[in-house]
Specification:
heterodimer; A: 250 residues; alpha/beta; TIM Barrel; 8 helices; 25% strand; globular; B: 686 residues; Anaerobic Ribonucleotide-triphosphate Reductase Large Chain; 2 domains; five-stranded mixed β-sheet
Chain lengths: 250, 686
């Protein structure tokens, strides 16, 4: 009977896990990434978006069990489509009670959680234990730069990733490539070194920064001022492929 | 695509060859009808004389590098009757569209195999038998003369060629049946072209990958052609279908009915998607041109590979392939009285109607019946209905009365005789009767239009009037009459809050199940004057404009004059939850009962085709629609034109979703600069 706050349910979400999936976006995130393209996902409170068609409320409360039952209506579709449900955000691990209850209730369906890894170890381990596949973000290996661009240290995140690698639970690592922030060889090499030889890593997905990222800021009455040069993005999978790590660009 | 075809494609795209075209006035044949009238020629004599004249006036045009020839140079088919004669015909008869036989599936296979000389001999033999009445003799003579006219044109093209491979091919097929792929495709081109020149239209190509396959396979197995050489010929055939297609407009340019069907399963369960089917998809993908339009027959056992190849083609934004589901269509046709072997051989007509090659003179698009108008009209009787079931009976009675009016309209049908089409249909020579008079099947199809609007209207009435009693019958009637003037709140409830078809909501979907069953039930009573039955369908054709414009406001909150959705698709203004909900809703009705056809249409942004993995996901979605019992599916990728129109008329495009990055947005809600970005991106096709 745990309540959670979400802001969107997307059928046929094609970029967040395998097969035919429904992606549920949870509202609220502990990080403040300067490149965030979903600014409405940051606050844990419902908020108004000012759109051309008028004002609309973003974010609503749902019951974990009811949401799971709604998803179970499509169980047969998910089975036919080798897919399932994905919790994304925001940060699903920032609403651990809701997330855990939902994952338990929806269990016969293939479950994916997409997380920044920014959560206490106990929460991280519990939730990963309830998933069939984890999509873990890896942004910046350098703690200072990480703090500079996301507002938080990466200590907790790296500890969780370390546990994930050792756990044997299948996962995909996703790197949002931001020009001048984390697309340098040094960072990618460090990421590569962390994952090299980890058998439960399915692949690395590079997500190049896109200039549409700022589209939603005006709807929240905010300005988008990314402190980096949009033109100079460096995208390569070579560093990974040269080390026998499967990597693709999304 | 090899260099020869790439160059030929450029030539055709560039349209220079069209300067060879001559008008009827220039050729002095614009008043054939007056001559015919003076000579007192019968209709079939006129058709035949007209074809002979047209072919004499044709100038052979051979484009550089062409191996499959025939380019139309006379840009019109002359009128057969004077205005006065037409007035007389119209006074006595019902005419379907332009009066010509159209939208049926010819049997090219038999003539390609036997050859024109053998077919002519069949006609002569029949003429030499006793017991032919005058009508039979006149008809058979016309078929014979038509064959001879085709042969003379082939001869002229052969002479024009000089001494080369194509000339040799032409000389052989002037009399003989095809022995090679080149001969088969050349003969098919001429036969297809002879239909167009006879005034017949919406001339489909049928099961191309089945009847051409023996020649394709034969040439490859004997080593006469390499698989790549065989592919080149197939691709050239596809290419030349685009040469004259601008002369064949239907309701709109492009509506020319040059469709074909790939794959399927035989009555014995044999899987028929072959290497030629694959080549067809590849040719269409490489050419990126609108003809021929491709349908794929699939069923629950169709391998994912077929859906993936289809989705690759969807990616380039041509709006095809369209899929049809054998598991639904075949039993549906059998249910309607088609023999099992005929049902298994079904093809798709110009748009989506399921028809039978060779043996059916069906008119699958004879009329449209507006289901939404039936609901709207029934609202006047709301006071008399104690419950929703009674109201549904009122709606059914309205459907019945409109259906009866449609049936009454179709009395004394007359069609212009069609000797060439007759040659390409089963049994006409044995019967000594023109195909326009009928065949083994003479069924008529009725498009049921505005299905989703009708269902949404019924759902709103059920919920708010019968269950929650939030408004009175008077209020609803007045609101609709005044186009919601002073009823903003009521309109908002009906339009934005009521349950809708397409949201996987059983409340609305159960009504859809009921409505389509009743539609089919009403039609089951009908027998047309040719002894055929009526088939219910889910297509709309142009009726989605024709039926919407005069329609006042409706109980789904739709304003007066606002469009109704095309074919079997959700209302234009519902906020969709996504394609999975749409597919689930739209597969709940028993679609075997609406076997006249009409696809669910799903639209996707180009960006979903970014990776092969995503193309596979789309293929899986198509497969799920089929597995859930969908009958027909068509997919669009969002086009630049559409987005530009969406900018101008955002009210018509509320559900147009574009992928912006990592999130999907409603196009009309984006700031202009982002809209322009998306537009820019779309113009550079993936």
């Amino acid at each position: 009977m745990k309540k959670g706050i979400i802001f969107s349910i997307e059928e046929f979400g094609i970029n967040d896990g395998p097969g035919i999936r429904t992606v549920i976006f949870l509202k609220g995130c502990p990080l403040r990434c300067v490149w965030c393209h979903n600014p409405e996902s940051i606050s844990f409170e419902p908020q108004y978006l000012e759109k051309k068609s008028g004002r609309s409320l973003c974010g609503y409360s749902v019951d974990a069990t009811e949401l799971a039952q709604k998803m179970l209506k499509n169980k047969i579709i998910f089975e036919m489509g080798n897919g399932g449900v994905t919790l994304s955000g925001g940060e699903p691990l920032a609403q651990p009670g809701f997330t855990a209850e939902f994952l338990e209730q929806v269990a016969p369906v293939h479950r994916v959680v997409e997380t920044s890894g920014m959560a206490p170890a106990s929460v991280f381990r519990e939730i990963v234990g309830l998933t069939d596949l984890t999509l873990i973000d890896v942004k910046q290996m350098n703690p200072e730069k990480h703090r500079q661009y996301t507002g938080a240290s990466n200590r907790q995140i790296l500890e969780n990733i370390g546990w994930l690698c050792a756990s044997g639970k299948p996962f995909v690592a996703r790197i949002p490539l931001i020009p001048g922030v984390n697309d340098d060889d040094e960072n990618l090499q460090a990421i590569q070194a962390m994952f090299k030889g980890v058998p439960s890593l399915q692949r690395i997905e590079l997500m190049p920064y896109n200039k549409f990222a700022g589209a939603k800021y005006p709807m929240l009455g905010r300005e988008y001022n990314p402190p980096f040069d949009l033109q100079s993005l460096h995208v390569t999978t070579d560093i990974f492929k040269n080390n026998n790590i499967n990597a693709i660009v999304l | 695509m090899n260099q020869r075809l790439a160059a030929l494609r450029e030539l055709i795209m560039d349209k220079q060859y069209r300067t060879c075209r001559r008008s009827l006035e220039e050729l002095g044949i614009d008043r054939l009808n007056e001559t015919f009238a003076k000579q007192g020629l019968s209709p079939v004599e006129r058709v035949t004389a007209c074809l002979e004249t047209l072919f004499e006036k044709e100038t052979p045009v051979i484009l550089p590098g062409e191996r499959i020839v025939f380019t139309r140079t006379v840009d019109q088919v002359p009128e057969l009757f004077t205005e006065q004669e037409w007035a007389e015909i119209r006074g006595k008869h019902y005419l379907h569209e332009r009066g010509y036989v159209c939208n049926i599936s010819p049997d090219y296979e038999t003539t390609i195999r036997k050859g024109l000389a053998a077919r002519k001999q069949e006609v002569i033999d029949k003429l030499n038998t006793k017991g032919n009445d005058a009508e039979a003799v006149e008809f058979l003579q016309s078929v014979k003369r038509s064959i001879e006219a085709i042969q003379r044109l082939i001869e002229r093209y052969a002479l024009e060629q000089g001494e080369n491979e194509t000339a040799a091919v032409l000389r052989r097929i002037k009399t003989d049946g095809a022995k090679t792929l080149h001969e088969a495709l050349q003969l098919l081109r001429i036969l297809h072209y002879a239909l167009w020149a006879s005034g017949n239209y919406h001339n489909t190509l049928g099961r191309f990958d089945q009847y051409i396959y023996p020649y394709y396979q034969g040439d490859i197995q004997s080593g006469r052609l390499t698989p790549e050489e065989a592919f080149d010929l197939v691709e050239e055939f596809f290419l030349v279908c685009n040469k004259d297609s601008d002369l064949y407009p239907g309701m709109q340019q492009g509506d020319n009915g040059q469709s074909l069907v790939l794959g399927g399963r035989s009555a014995s369960g044999e899987y028929l998607f072959n290497d030629l089917s694959k080549d067809c998809l590849r040719a269409s993908y490489e050419l990126n041109m609108i003809d021929p339009k491709i349908n794929i027959r699939v069923d629950k056992d169709t391998p994912m590979e077929v859906y993936e190849m289809g989705s690759e083609l969807t990616k380039i934004g041509l709006g095809f392939p369209q899929y049809s589901n054998d598991d639904v269509v075949i039993p549906g046709l059998i249910r309607k009285g088609y023999a099992e072997e005929d049902a298994h051989n079904y093809v798709v007509a110009a748009c989506w109607e399921f028809i039978i090659p060779k043996v059916a003179m069906d008119i699958p698009n004879i009329d449209g019946l507006s289901l939404i108008a039936c609901v709207q009209n029934s609202v006047a009787k709301l006071q008399d209905c104690p419950d929703f079931q009674t109201f549904m009976q009122v709606v059914e009675a309205e459907i019945k009365s409109r259906f009866e009016a449609i049936c009454a309209k179709h009395k004394n049908l007359w069609m212009i005789p069609a000797p060439v089409m007759s040659l390409l249909m089963d049994g006409t020579i044995e019967r000594g009767r023109d195909i326009s008079l009928g065949a083994k099947y003479n069924n008529y199809g009725i498009h049921g239009t505005g299905i989703a609007s009708a269902v949404d209207s019924l759902a709103a009435i059920k919920k708010y009037y019968f269950e929650e009693k939030t408004f009175s019958a008077d209020e609803l009637q007045d609101a609709l009459k005044t186009n919601f003037e002073g009823y903003a709140e009521l309109r908002d409830r009906l339009r934005n809050q009521a349950p809708k078809m397409g949201q996987d909501d059983d409340f609305a979907d159960a009504i859809a199940v009921d409505l389509l069953a009743r539609f089919d039930q009403v039609l089951q009573g009908g027998v047309n004057e040719r002894g055929g039955i009526y088939r219910a369908g889910t297509g709309t054709a142009m009726y989605y404009v024709w039926h919407a414009t005069p329609l006042g406001a409706t109980p789904d909150g739709r304003d007066a004059g606002e469009f109704i959705p095309a074919n079997y698709s959700p209302s234009l203004f519902i906020r969709q939850q996504g394609p999975v909900s749409v597919i689930k809703s739209f597969t709940k009705p028993d679609l075997q009962r609406v076997i006249n056809g009409g696809p669910l249409t799903l639209e996707f942004d180009q960006s979903i085709f970014k990776s092969k993995e995503n193309v596979s996901k789309l293929a899986t979605l198509v497969q799920i629609y089929i597995l859930l019992g969908g009958h027909q599916l068509q997919l669009n990728t969002v086009s630049r034109e559409k987005l530009l129109d969406a900018k101008k008329h955002p009210e018509n495009y509320r559900n147009l979703i574009v992928r912006v990055w990592g999130w999907s947005g409603y196009f009309v809600e984006l700031d202009e600069c982002y809209q322009d970005h998306v537009l820019n991106r779309i113009s550079f096709r993936v």
